[in-house]
Design goal:
31% helix, Ubiquitin-like (UB roll), 6 helices, alpha+beta, binds FE2/S2 (inorganic) cluster, 14% strand, 2 domains, 5 strands, single chain, globular, DNA polymerase, domain 1, 195 residues
Length: 195
């Protein structure tokens, strides 16, 4: 008797923006394709599909990740936050509002990934994480100001084919200042924080 052929599909349950979504996927399906093609969540964009442009950035357990390099089956049990989960009702996240107010985009295709990255960058910076352009990386050193150079370096994984970088840097700086000025109670809760 021939050995049973192993199944190439599995039923998985993904926690996306605080909501459980159950679906059956081919084991090779990326999180990006599961979001866009299976769950109709097209806010997350596909650019290069090989981890180089950042258009597909989402948050996994609060940390940024390129969803084109993440298998959907490996995202089970993680808190996934997409651009659709950043606002709280009609209240945009301060970073979203800053991108709107300062025209941090042209065509807008890279924008969801830029905003997801920016929100994580602000949290990484607030937690004292250094970057490649931080002068003093000793643990006892004060965190560097989130200067334009720091923003450019920390956002360097997110490409913008329209070249809207000047406005993007301004929007991230404004978003960081607004986020800092608001108490955590005032901030729209990303779903993993609200869970
Ligand atoms: S589409 Fe994922 S990094 Fe470009
Ligand atoms: S706004 Fe068009 S790719 Fe960035």
């Amino acid at each position: 008797m021939a050995p049973a052929t192993p199944s190439t599909h599995s039923a998985i349950s993904l926690n996306i923006n605080g909501e459980k979504r159950t679906l059956s996927v081919d084991h090779r399906t990326t999180l990006l394709d599961a979001l866009r093609e299976r769950l109709d969540m097209t806010g997350t964009k596909k650019g290069c599909d090989q981890g180089q442009c950042g258009a597909c950035t989402v948050l996994l357990d609060g940390r940024r990740a390129v969803s084109c390099l993440q298998l959907a089956v490996a995202a089970e049990g993680r808190e996934i936050t997409t651009i659709e989960g950043m606002a709280s009702g009609d209240q945009l996240h301060p970073v979203q509002q800053a991108f709107l107010d300062l025209d941090g985009y042209q065509c807008g295709y890279c924008t969801p990934g830029q905003i997801c990255s920016a929100i994580a960058v602000i949290e990484e910076h607030a937690a004292g994480w250094p970057s490649a352009v931080t002068d003093d990386v000793r643990p006892e050193a004060a965190p560097p100001p989130l200067s334009a150079d720091e923003i450019r370096e920390r956002m360097s994984g997110n490409l913008c084919r329209c070249g809207a970088y000047v406005s993007i840097v301004e929007a991230v700086a404004r978003g960081a200042a607004e986020t800092q000025a608001m108490t955590s109670a005032d901030l729209p809760q990303t779903e993993e924080a609200a869970a």
